[in-house]
Amino acid sequence: MSGKNVSVGLIQMSCEADKAANLEKSVALIRKAAAKGAQIICLQELFLSKYFCWEENYDCFTLAESVPGPTTATFQELAAELKVVLIASLFEKRARGIYHNTVAVLDADGKYLGKYRKHHIPDDPGYYEKFYFTPGDGGYQVFKTKHGRIGALICWDQWYPEAARIVALKGAEIIFYPTAIGWALNQDAETNRQQYQAWQTVQKGHAVANGVYIVSVNRTGTEGSMNFWGGSFVSSPFGDLIFQASHDKEEVHVEELKLGVIDEIRVHWPFLRDRRIDSYRPVMNRFIDDAYDLI
User: Which candidate in 42, 45, 93, 173 is catalytic?
Assistant: First the structure.
């Protein structure tokens, strides 16, 4: 773990149907974040379009592109110019009939470092992602950038402690979660509050259990049947809420993170030291029936 500080930029924005317009807007906001001192900048999930997964529509497959491809090429030039790391969530066409929800990471010199393909794919009203995306098969990735070691997971991945644990064990200092999550338009305020708090709490739990920073970047605005709840946030490695964005406004925020805190917290709260890795085999089962002794 490094002891330096790093400034991270969160871009929370609304999207429109025009892919080119969303790209132009995101580039302008990246420049704004860089001007504020950001060294690592994360965009929300599927920022190049509206969240098309609210319905099952074959026409939406035309939105996909190769990764690396045209958008990563644009961002490589931008990253090199601004000397920033960029985390870009894209709809990837891997092959005919195989599509992924993918994050590409571009280093501060413009180098394409690689990609992570979303592993956990939801299938719920308003989130019909299994219609579009094949689950990732390339493992959980950690990227050694010029400004720190980062993990990049995607939205539904954020509910699973196993994913956060693996990238922490692989050396991530910060876990980024590009996200597209919101409230159904007909929900009451109390249900909305409970859902947002559950979403934030589980991710803060990942921060505490693993001694890492969490940076979660969500979209905002009303699309289809969903009112995206924004609320992008940063958690310290001990679960302190360092920053939280509004629910209904576009925001560009830059936060300085003290990476040296990670070592201090892990020394005093040695959760990784005390893991009983010899006892975790049952977690590999879908469910543990009483009829089987899996210990």
Answer: 45
Q: Which domains does the chain have, with CATH numbers?
A: 5-273 (3.60.110.10)
Active-site hit among 92, 115, 155, 173: 155
Of 92, 118, 223, 255, which one is the catalytic site residue?
A: 118
Dihedral angle, C-alpha 162, 163, 168, 174, nearest 10 °: -140
Q: Is 118 a catalytic residue?
A: yes
Task: Give the C-alpha separation, 70 to 235, whole Å.
Answer: 33
Q: What is the model's pTM?
A: 0.96
| For residue 185, pLDDT beyond 60 | yes
How big, in percent rounded to 5, are the helix, strand and coil portions of the chain?
A: 30, 30, 40
Q: What is the mean pLDDT of residues 17-41?
A: 98
Please write the tens of the pLDDT for every residue from 84-132: 999 999 999 999 999 999 999 999 999 999 999 999 999 999 999 999 9
Alpha-carbon separation of residue 146 from 28, 91, 164 (angstroms): 23, 26, 22
The pLDDT value recorded for residue 49 is 97
Q: Among this protein's residues, is 45 annotated catalytic?
A: yes
